[in-house]
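Here is one such protein, fold included:

. . .
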Amino acid sequence: MKIGVLGDSHGRIKNINIAMKFLKDTELIVFTGDHITDIRYITKEYGAEVIAVRGNCDCSGELEIVRTINGRRIFICHGHKYGVKYTLDNIHYRAEELEADIVIFGHTHIPYYEETNGIIMINPGSVTFPRGRSKKSCVMINLGEKIEVEFIDVT
């Protein structure tokens, strides 16, 4: 199963359209928050199934979601409630509590991938306002027998 991951779009439809060119063959889109209303656009224009969480700039939506997809338990949140700009320990501990295989989060606007103690942690970065030395990005996850993660430059 192919899952597209993007977030921190902040209402910039042009950037969503660029990202969706790369994610058009996905079976599911995960949106990590900050302008959660962008999911309405994605659903309408691309007919995509979307799982979305709200970010610190959003007024509504779920703060965190846990779903089992293709036999993998996935914990999705924006990350601001776990202080991800300062440490990833809190979000990792939460993933352990939830017995998650994969954590998908945003907030930092910096792409990130790491596997620690059997938990894969993924941040797609931002399709609009990258930080650090990163570029506008999103992620493609292939959940097969093996989990494959590809970061996509959308500049």
Remarks:
- The chain has one domain: 2-153.
- The longest helix spans residues 13-23.
